[in-house]
Structures are given as C-alpha cells and as structure tokens.
Write a structure and sequence with these properties.
The protein is mainly alpha-helical. It folds into two domains: 1-198, no CATH class; 199-339, no CATH class. 74% of the residues lie in helices and 2% in strands. The chain has helices at residues 5-30, 60-81, 85-93, 105-136, 139-164, 169-193, 205-237, 242-248, 251-276, 281-302, 308-330; strands at 201-203, 331-333. It has a two-stranded parallel sheet with strand order 1-2.
Length: 339
C-alpha cells in the first residue's frame, strides 16, 4: 500500500515529539521541577498555571495534599490487586509523600511545558490513528497505531501517579520504559508506512547476533542508568558530595560502567566489519552516538559539569535505542555478505 508523503512525514514528526517528552522530562528532573504542579492534568487547579503565589488560596498546600492522599490510596489498592502489597504499604505509610513544596513559578512552568509537549505528542498520535481509519484502513497498521495510542493514554495516567506519589523512584523508571515502548511501536509504524524504511539490510548471522546483544544491553543500560540516577538523587537530598556518590551508589554504577565498555568493544568490531563490507549508515550513526554517550557518561561521573549533560546523556541513549530498533526491523539474515 502506498502512503502519502504527508502521512509519512506526520508520523516522523510525531516521533520527534515523543522524543521531546524525554528531553522535557529530563529537564524537569535536573531542575527539580517534578512537583512544580501538585495535581494532574491541571496545574494548581488551572489549565494555564499561575505565575504568582498570591493568586493561590492560603491553604493551597493542605488542599493539594488532601487530593494527593486520596490518589495514593486508590493507587495503593490498585497495586494490591496486582499483588504488589509491599509497595502499596510503603506508599500508604510514607507521610513525606504528602508534603507539598513551596510555590516556584519557574518549576511550575517547567513542569507545565513538559505536560504540554506530552499533550501535543498524544494528539499527533490520535490524529495519525484517525487518519489511518478514514483513509487507509490497513488492519495491521490500525491495530498497532491503536495500541500505541492506548499506551500513550496509560503513560499520561501514570504521569499523574508519578506526581501523586511525589516522584517515588520506581515510578519514574516505569514511566521512562513506557516511553521507550511507545518509541519502539512508533518506529514500527514508520517502518510500515515509510518507503525508505522498507529497504531490507542483509546481515550475516554473526552481525544479527551482535545487533541483538547490543540492543538488549543498551535497553538494560538505560534501566541501570535510571537506577543510578535515582540513587544519586537520594544521596543529594541527604547532603552527600560528588566524591561520596561514587563510593555509596553501589553495584548498579559499576555494572553500568562495565557494560558500556562491552558495548564499545562489540560495536567497534561491528563498525569495522560494516566499513569493510556494506557500509550501512545506521551502524555508523549508532557508533557515533555511543561515542557521545560514553563521553557524557565520563563527564557525569568524574567532572562537575552542568546538569544539562544529564539530559544529553539520556537523549544519546534513547536515540541510539531507536536506531538499533530500526536496524532490527530492517535487517534480514543472509548466509553471505558480498565483499
């Protein structure tokens, strides 16, 4: 089936906005703006947030703390129904989750812009889905796009849980991986509709195995990186210095660092083989992104760099994840690659 250039371009732009959610979310985190809006989907009860504390009622902290308590209680029952009783108990008994921050208009608008980007991305997926229903009606495409739309709605709902639980670390990890799943499905949609992404890329069995290993390690690296970031956030709140972070953060940091070298070696060999044979550009892009990822990781671990490096570290990893996903979608196993 032939799809219009406008439709293909729309899906690419939607992917860009999904990635912008990662950027905005990272900026929210490094600026400490996650609780800039104490409620969801509105912000301080308004669709357009305030810029001054004087526009809020005097007891606004009590009001939003009470609303948070009700949402935490509902989510705790939900967790119990899934068998996560210990996690539900922690949420119910941790009274610090009900503490409201002082109003800060910069944090409020940073979080608001994060939500605005998510709103735009969600509506772009909705329009793409309706576009498919009206014009193309290809069952496989409609089902996949419908699934991604549902996941985006779940992601938005879970964003409200992240806010309600006052940024409990494990909820942030789940939030990020839902985002990666949405990215993967959107890339599959692009694979179906874009002629440039339907061109097969023949790979030897060894290259296919290496692609899968690098892809899986990269996904696990993002999980470990999130764990390291969460642990560091806790240590910062407790007053630990940068030198104390590395001594305290534990095994996730060392595994995260070691796996980076494993990926470097494997991808280095793959890039060398690629340049000798087929010269696929996506493999070159992955190699370049890995180099940037390693540099930013070293800066984060050993140099007192601006917090924006954290955002770049996440973006390099997530884009690398996306290109590897497309590589796997397009790769085709062959017994011999022409020299």
């Amino acid at each position: 089936m032939n799809y219009s250039k406008a439709f293909v371009r729309w899906n690419w732009i939607a992917l860009v906005f999904i990635y912008l959610i990662f950027v905005a979310g990272s900026l929210v985190r490094i600026t400490g703006s996650g609780m800039g809006c104490p409620d969801w989907p509105k912000c301080f009860g308004e669709w357009v947030p305030p810029t001054e504390e004087s526009s809020l009622p005097e007891n606004y902290k009590d009001v939003f703390s009470e609303k948070r308590a009700k949402k935490i209680d509902k989510f705790s029952y939900f967790l119990e129904s899934l068998g996560f009783r210990s996690e539900a108990k922690v949420l119910r008994t941790d009274k610090t989750l009900l503490e409201e921050e002082d109003f800060n208009w910069r944090k409020t608008w940073t979080e608001y812009l994060n939500r605005l980007v998510g709103f735009i991305a969600g509506n772009m997926l909705l329009i793409a889905f309706l576009w498919m229903l009206v014009k193309y009606r290809y069952r496989k495409l409609v089902l996949v796009a419908g699934l991604n739309l549902v996941l985006m709605a779940i992601q938005a709902w879970f964003g409200s849980i992240v806010v309600a639980t006052n940024l409990v670390p494990w909820t942030i990890t789940v939030h990020m991986f839902l985002g990666l799943l949405i990215v993967g499905i959107q890339l599959y949609i692009i694979r179906l509709v874009s002629p440039s992404q339907q061109v097969k890329m023949p790979q030897s069995q060894l290259m296919m195995v290496l692609l899968w290993i690098i892809f899986l390690i990269t996904a696990y690296q993002m999980f470990l990186g999130t764990q390291v970031r969460e642990e560091i956030d806790v240590l910062v709140k407790q007053g630990y210095s940068r030198e104390q972070w590395l001594a305290t953060v534990g095994w996730p940091f060392y595994v995260h660092r070691s796996f980076s070298w494993v990926v470097l070696v494997l991808l280095g060999w793959m890039t060398w083989t690629n340049e000798k044979t087929v010269k696929y550009k996506p493999i070159r892009w992955v190699a370049g992104l890995l180099a940037l990822e390693l540099i930013s990781g070293v800066l984060l671990a050993h140099v007192d760099m601006p917090a924006i490096v954290q955002t770049m570290h996440l973006i390099f990893a997530s884009v690398m994840f996306g290109i590897l996903t497309l590589l796997l979608f397009r790769s085709r196993l062959v017994t011999k690659i022409t020299q």
